[in-house]
Amino acid sequence: MHSILLRIxxxxxxxxxxxxxxxxxxxxxxxxxxxxxxxxxxELRTSKxxxxxxxxxxxxxxxxxxxxxxxxxPLPLPLNANVEVTGIIPEKSSVFKSNMYPLLLYFQCSDGxxxxxxxxxxxxxxxxQLVIQLFTLMDQLLRKENLDLKLxxxxxxxxxxxxxxxxxxxxxxxxxxxxxxxxLLNYLRAHHPDxxxxxxxxxxxxVIDTFVRSCGTLIENGRQTRSLTDPNSxxxxxxxxxxxx
Length: 245
Fold this sequence. Notes:
Layout: H1 2-16, H2 20-46, H3 51-63, E1 75-77, E2 80-88, E3 94-95, E4 103-109, E5 114-121, H4 126-144, E6 156-160, E7 163-167, E8 172-173, H5 174-181, H6 184-191, H7 205-214, E9 224-229, E10 236-241
Antiparallel strand pairs: 1-2, 2-4, 3-4, 4-5, 5-7, 6-7, 8-9, 9-10
Helix pairs in contact: 1-2
């Protein structure tokens, strides 16, 4: 009932605003895309097929032109309206190995970049969205007091009571890095060397500063907390979630 009333209010507002018809059409297309993804995610989650078969089916569904997912007119992504997408890359799409079998979708952006997204059906994503909003608010308040913990909250959007989208951040765990490089310092030195630096063990000072400050976010508060590093930048980040992949 709430979603129906909200849709009526939004429709009325867009009719009265400038370019209201264009905005209404954009919202309609976004809703259609979410409905299509939710339906396919539910089908794959409830099917008895093994994971490799689910991945094969997902790629086949995306490639099917009748679903309009491979290629589409530029559309603002509901998860992040600043990102304009033109389709989903079938060969990069996958299904995670977990109880809910969330979908990994790589959206092709109009600027040539890619935006990976996790679409999950069967779980309440509203709690994840609330947690990220709280951390974003906390970060803003701390920054006003000149305390920057180098937080980079990822995008989360609950598209329904039991479904939603999450920005996927490619990363490596600290354990994997230590296994490969011996120490985290060796890893940072390999990605951001600075032989002329003083007191940072051959690592760029800004990277060390980010690492030290971000350690302040590694707090257990009853939720799952993981220390991760971006494999491209080699910079430590903190990922906090209320559900496992």
